Amino acid sequence: MTGAFSGSARGGQALPKVPTPPTGWPIGSYNTYQEAHRAVEYLAGNEFPVQEVTIVGVDLMLVERVIGRLSWPKVLGTGALSGAWFGLFVGLLLGLFSSQTMSFAPILVGLVAGVIFGLVFAAVGYATTRSAGREIASSSQLVAGRYDVLAQPRNAEKGRDLLAKLAMRPSTVIE
Known about the structure:
Blueprint: E1 25-30, H1 33-45, E2 53-69, H2 72-96, H3 105-131, E3 136-151, H4 153-168
Antiparallel strand pairs: 1-3, 2-3
Helix pairs in contact: 2-3
């Protein structure tokens, strides 16, 4: 597995620069990403060459979970609050580098300016989305119906054998 800053960990293989379909033979299929990740961790712990393994999300879905209904008071309150936090941060930075000692003016100016800008940006954003018929707050997530673990053909049989052993162990809940 690689992270955003870990670079290529594929042994001699370079990661593709353009979208490329995965290669390999299926060695396991799981309902959740956590189960697939657990399988790959198990393979890694058993000296399997995991640099040849790919987790593929199949049957992709965009899931939008509704958080609540938007209204002007909620939008403006949230905008003012987020603007106040940012303004307070900027005011504290200005106060830190102020030539006057113990002056709260930069903090107060930053706080007030932050609230004003937060209100303006929230109002403009809500007005434009509201005119498009959008009056709910939601969170979107891309999920898969299942997660297949693929391995290169030369190690697929060994991978299947190891994952069969994992499947026979009592499962633990991973959070």
